[in-house]
Amino acid sequence: MYSDSELYNCKYNQYSNEDRKLILKLFPIDIWVFIILSPITFFGTMKIVYQFLKDTKLFGVPGDSVFVIMIMNGIESMVQFSTAIYVLKYNEAPLKNAFCEITGLAISIVFVISNLNIFVYAAYPLALIYNTLKSAARLLRIFNYSIVCIIILVVIFGHNIVSLTLNGICAISATDSETMDFVISLSYLLIFLLFGTMSVIYVLTLKKLIPKYSTIRRVRGQYLRHYQRFIGFSLIMKFLLGIFSAINLLNCYKFQKTWLEVSATLQNITQALCILGQTIIIFNDSSLKLIFNHSSTADDNNENDMKEISLQQFNVLEQLHKEMKKTQVTSMLAGVQILRRIKLEDVVQYKDLVIQDEQDGSGSNSSQGDLSELMDAFSQPFTLDEIEECLVTNLNNEILQEKLKINQEIQVFSMRCILYAPKIFNYFITLDNIDIEDCFDLIKNSACIDQFTGPDGGKSGEFFFFSYNNQLIIKTMRQSEVNTYKKRLYNFATYQFNNHQSLLNKIYGMYTFERQEQAHSRVHFLIMKNISLGIPRTSILRTYDMKGSEYDREVLAKKPSSDLSKITLKDLDFFKIEQEIWVEDSISKKLNQSLKTDSNFLERQQLIDYSLLVMIIDWNQKEEELQKYLDGQQINVIPSIKEKGIYYHIAIIDYLQRWNVNKSLERQTKKIIKMNMQLDTSAQEPSIYGRRFQEKLINRIVPLK
Fold first, then answer.
1. Most confident of the following: 11-15, 211-215, 371-375, 586-590
2. What is the C-alpha separation between 260 and 264, in angstroms, rounded?
3. Residues with Cβ < 8 Å from 315, sequence gap 6 or more?
4. SS3 for 581?
5. Rounded distance between C-alpha atoms, residue 278 and residue 238, angstroms
6. β-bridge partners, 522
7. Residue 492 belongs to what H/E stretch?
8. Torsion angles phi and psi, residue 702, rounded to 5
9. Which of 321, 315, 298 has its CA nearest to residue 52?
10. Residue 533 near residue 653, CB atoms below 8 Å
């Protein structure tokens, strides 16, 4: 017999053939474990992969990670099975041959990608909290593709880097150096320590920040039960793998005891059980089972059952995300209603609130702004003290029921609600005869809330919510926009008071809501007028968003066959389709002057990136209803002289963007990318932006004749 020191060498490829056969015969159990368990794992993963390919709705977040993990588990089970068959056939472990090269490459790719996706799967709750689900999924796909390419290149250009590892499976081996082996093994353990720690933190964070009521409770429970089972099982198995791998490594270099080679067998068995267990947990996911059942009963033709099943998507985290957005919108509507019921005498000052505003780049946080241009204003109806006032109230489920007396079960977040300058906004609400409480009534808006899916604010990522009657819009704001508007609120209020023909789209309130569960998380939003005046979307023929720029300002070139009523067109599209706004000469002159006056005002406020929104609406069927909106607003809603019953709805929107360093860098970057320093980008200095807005847009669409 051999002694331990004579028998044991660190690398299997250093054994003689006779020694290698002896070692493999010591503990053959792992070979049979591979043969028995690997086919089960493989067919289970292929069933799940097939279901993903059959129903692409399963992809997304966290479906992408699960799909990749299942593919990796399937590949690893194939490697385990083929290795076991090789050993049984040749009665020895694989040498440095083609079989070892292929399986070694496969197992190395699997190891990196699978563990990364498990880690990212654990991190998805954090992506939920910070609203980065789509970007997280996109980055994960890029990483998965990249790491496969990198490993393949390493193998192609590397030299003798694939060989047997300490547990008898071919893989990219570390080195024959004791130091490097320990460094790599330590890194392996640290990675899983980080994985385990962050997974626990993510679970606790999700539990803390996701409310435990209403529809969220069901979806939250469905996701968390499966999520915790999968992550918990993976953590335990990875921990055991780390222990057995450490024993194997220490035995290689320190102990050199033959009987401790059982750690290699235990490592193989644990890995086989790990991928099998992960597959079983995924396979038994309740929402995925519903989809399997749907597949087996496809001939049932029961439309109601199919509709109900279709709602149970595997992508429950995204569904949870949507439910949170719906609860946020419900809370915003409820807060607006409650704030409207507080007496205007019960105001407090900004200074009484713990609100830390960011600097807006002007060197001051004052709400007054530059008042010099308003000194000669015809009338100054507002005081600076009124600008500094706000209303504050708390909101929770008990307050909701007490204040609004709603019989239905409606759940809201616990939060503090702030309305800025209530007397100022109330003046314009009363002037325009706006019933905000009715527009944002929770019961009347229930259908709109149910259909709400989240951000749809274009590049900004902000979301819009339209009231049930389409008369008002809630739009979330960035902190920089809040600061910009607060600083210039007195200017805007005074300007719009003295310019009733202004086409600046009316803002009827600016709010900040602070979640109690997230002390530093605030949602800022404003309520503004919807210039369509509540007309059904089927009556909106075309919508144009124009800035006076020509760079990247054409939609139809990319979507030539689109339904024009369902997309927002831009400058070049307008000039091709409409040429100009066809109204009476007297109205055209008045419209031209009002737009230029507004543009000059925005230029003095150092604001840019605003747009002229033009809607072409068919009022033929509801022309009588339109008349109630026309008093004093003829400049906003103008009949076309080309087609009877067709009206132009016009307003300047998105006027809270300041010219700053970021905008300057954006302009220069676009010029460099396009290699054209004369490029007419959207972002320009206020004076240039205003001049272009007037010369290349206003004078073209409403020319003076």
1. 586-590
2. 8
3. 57, 58, 59, 60, 61, 62, 63
4. coil
5. 12
6. 514
7. helix 479-498
8. -130, 70
9. 315
10. no
Query: Distance between CA 404 and CA 406 in Å, rounded?
Result: 6
pLDDT tens per residue across span 80-138: 999 889 888 887 777 767 888 888 888 888 887 887 777 777 766 666 555 555 565 56
Structural Rg of the chain based on CA atoms = 33
CA distances from 385 to 337, 378, 421, 429, 657 (A): 24, 20, 9, 19, 25
CA 645/CA 123 separation, integer angstroms = 55
Give the residue from 109, 130, 133, 116 showing the smallest Cα distance to 59: 133
Give the per-residue SS3 of 279-335.
HHHHHCCHHHHHHHHHHHCHHHCCHHHHHHHHHCCCCHHHHHHHHHHHHHHHHHHHH
CA distances from 159 to 13, 95, 152, 265 (A): 16, 15, 13, 28
Q: What is the DSSP letter of 251?
A: I
Length of the chain: 705
- Reference 419, options 337, 483, 325, 504; nearest CA is 337
Reported in sequence order, the residue ranges of 415-459 that DSSP labels E, i.e. its strands, are 415-420
At residue 9 the predicted structure's pLDDT band, cuts being 50, 70 and 90, is very low
- What would the two tokens of residue 120 be? 């990212």
Tokens at 493, concatenated: 């209020």
Which two three-digit tokens encode residue 297? 């009963």
Q: What contacts 594, CB < 8 A, 6 or more positions away?
A: 499, 501, 502, 503, 635
Tokens of 401: 């029921």
Cα of first residue to Cα of last residue in the chain, in angstroms, is 110
- Angle of helix 316-340 versus helix 397-404 axis, rounded to 10: 40
pLDDT in tens, 404-427: 888 777 888 888 899 999 999 999
Residue 13, amino acid: N
Q: How far apart are CA 407 and CA 97, in angstroms?
A: 74
Beta-sheet pairing, 464-466 with 522-529: unpaired
Cis upstream peptide for 125 (omega within 30°): no
Look up tokens 């056939």; give the residue.
89
C-alpha span between 421 and 701 (Å, rounded):
36
What pLDDT band is residue 175 in, cutting at 50, 70 and 90?
Answer: low
Do 526 and 622 form a contact (C-beta atoms < 8 A)?
no
Q: 677: which 2 tokens?
A: 């320093």
Q: Is 59 exposed, middle or buried (0-12, 13-18, 19+ CB in 10 A)?
A: middle
- Angle at the Cα of 222 from the Cα atoms of 446 and 277, rounded to 5 degrees: 160
Q: How far is CA 432 from the centre of its chain?
A: 36
Rounded CA separation 435/447 (Å) = 19
Eight-state DSSP code of residue 461: -
Which tokens is 265 given? Answer: 């067998």
- CA–CA separation, 422 and 508 (whole Å): 9
- Look up residue 496 and give its amino acid: Q
Q: Six-digit token pair at 616?
A: 């072409």
The amino acid occupying position 522 is R
Angle at the Cα of 189 from the Cα atoms of 183 and 192, rounded to 5 degrees: 140
* C-alpha–C-alpha distance, residues 158 and 154, integer Å: 5
Tokens read off for 542: 């075309």
Per the listing, tokens 């019933």 go with 435
311 in Cβ contact with 204 (< 8 Å): no
